[in-house]
Specification:
The protein is α/β, with parallel strands linked by helices. About 45% of the residues lie in helices and about 10% in strands. It holds the Pfam family Response_reg.
């Protein structure tokens, strides 16, 4: 173990005591302070081999001081701690040049390991700092221990081009994580291009990925650019990679190995410079054993594996997510709403088979269709149990079996407008009602055709590309299973 002089800054006396005792016990020389000014005086004087500091100090935020520390002593490792356990905290720590970020409460053994590693590693050149002109946003929400691990992993990946494989159930936010990797990473000025392998006919995947030349196949009336070309200099997100056919897997492997590709029908190799982020809700190792996925491609893609936990494994994040989605609905012009504590408890107990996407859909439905500002536990229980949705606290009357869709909608709208008395519902009702109808319509059509998008498009009377866009926008899972399966 490398022993060194460690500077500790934290406004909490108990934490200062714990760190002082733990670090001194293993041979380090420790100096503690409760304010940022003293810490900066020590650093500016050349003291200390490593800094451990809380973000929020009584006299200055550590994120404001970090650039000065890195400028004065670029080789000095700084470990940042924070009770504000959000994604943006981890990202800002990375952007400001922190060696490591630890959410509070932290594991003391893990901290000691980080300290030992920081003191033992050879000093690296200072990383280029990102400007502060980008407004803070919250692309990922949750303060659970599971999400803290995700945030820290993402923060480490931001300044690399390593290929990332994101695994997780449908609705866990795999594309959201891929976008965060891009938007806060070194390729943020380049394009982010996403392609869903499950939503593209098998015979068109290679053309979608690599483009095609005029006359390459029947119907190719002109040259078309592929997603690799569109993503040049940026990030290519390959969603549902487990649905990629074997022939396309072979071509993708060649691109990853050689850094170049040819268009369908083309002969001239094209150099490519993209970062690959892949995602799957399937067990690729099982697919490998079944001969459905190339093992060599798996290892090329699985450089940095990142598993997103299902919502049931981080139920403590449900209240934060509910508030986040209600806030988003309010920005769209809907009335501000909140769920009573008993309702939140019921939501935390629910298993959420559709994960965060299912929760978001529920919150948007609550925001759009319930007039009351406070959502009761009874409403939540009715929604989660699949019961008929009561409007304005009334029991919905049973409708006759032979009622038409138009009559059912008219009946619903009469009750909906009545619930507002002399007032009118929030603006945007047209789009909200269409969205409510569109999702079950497209889902029922996809189910009836067993996931066949060509037949579903014909059934709906839509262009296939339009249907594909609807599936993506509505977040509909495409299951290719027998009806009733």
């Amino acid at each position: 173990m490398s022993h060194g002089s460690i500077l500790v800054a934290d406004d909490d006396a108990a934490i200062r005591t714990v760190l002082n005792q733990a670090l001194s016990r293993v041979g380090h020389d420790v100096r503690v302070t409760s304010n940022a000014a003293t810490l900066w005086r020590w650093v500016a004087a050349g003291e200390g081999d490593l800094v451990i500091t809380d973000v929020v100090m009584p006299d200055e935020n550590a994120f404001d001081m970090l650039p000065r520390i890195k400028k004065a002593r670029p080789q000095l490792p700084v470990i940042v701690m924070s009770a504000q356990n959000t994604f943006m905290t981890a990202i800002r720590a990375s952007e400001k040049g922190a060696y490591e970020y630890l959410p509070k409460p932290f594991d003391l053994t893990e901290l000691l390991g980080i300290v030992n590693r920081a003191l033992s590693e050879p000093k690296q050149p200072a990383a280029e700092q990102r400007s502060d002109d980008q407004p803070e946003s919250m692309p990922l929400v949750g303060r659970s221990a599971a999400m803290q691990d995700i945030y820290r992993m993402l923060a480490r990946m931001m300044q690399t081009d390593l290929t990332v494989m994101i695994s997780g159930e449908s609705g866990t936010g795999k594309e959201l994580v891929a976008r965060a990797l891009h938007e806060y990473g070194r390729r943020r000025n380049g394009p982010f291009v996403a392609i869903n392998m499950a939503a593209i006919p098998r015979d068109l995947i290679e053309s979608e990925l690599f483009g095609h030349e005029k006359g390459a196949f029947t119907g190719a009336q002109h040259r078309s650019t592929g997603r690799f070309e569109q993503a040049e200099g940026g990030t290519l997100f390959l969603d549902e990679i487990g649905d990629m056919p074997m022939e396309a897997q072979t071509r993708l492997l060649r691109v990853l190995q050689q850094g170049e590709y040819t268009t369908v029908g083309g002969r001239t190799p094209i150099k490519t410079d993209v970062r690959i982020v892949a995602a799957t809700n399937k067990d690729l190792r099982t697919l490998i054993n079944q001969g459905l996925f190339r093992e060599d491609l798996f290892y090329r893609l699985n450089v940095v594996p990142l598993r997103l936990p299902p919502l049931r494994e981080r139920a403590e994040d449900v209240p934060d997510l509910v508030r986040h989605f209600f806030a988003a609905a309010e920005k769209e012009g809907l009335q501000a709403k909140r769920v009573v504590p008993a309702g939140l408890d019921a939501m935390k107990r629910y298993s959420w088979p559709g994960n965060v996407r299912e929760l978001e859909n529920l919150v948007r439905r609550l925001a759009a269709l319930y007039p009351q500002e406070e959502i009761t536990a009874e409403i939540i229980d009715a929604e989660l149990s699949g019961a008929a949705r009561p409007e304005a606290g009334q029991t919905q009357a049973m409708l006759p079996d032979n009622i038409t869709i138009g009559q059912a909608v008219e009946h619903y709208l009469q009750r909906y407008f009545t619930s507002y008395g002399d007032e009118l519902p929030p603006a945007g009702l047209y789009q909200r009602i269409l969205a409510e109808v569109e999702y079950p319509l497209v889902l029922a059509s996809m189910t009836a055709t067993r996931g066949n998008q060509i037949r579903a498009a014909e059934l709906l009377g839509l262009n296939r590309n339009t249907l594909r866009k609807k599936i993506r926008e509505l977040g509909i899972n495409v299951y290719r299973t027998a009806r009733g399966g």
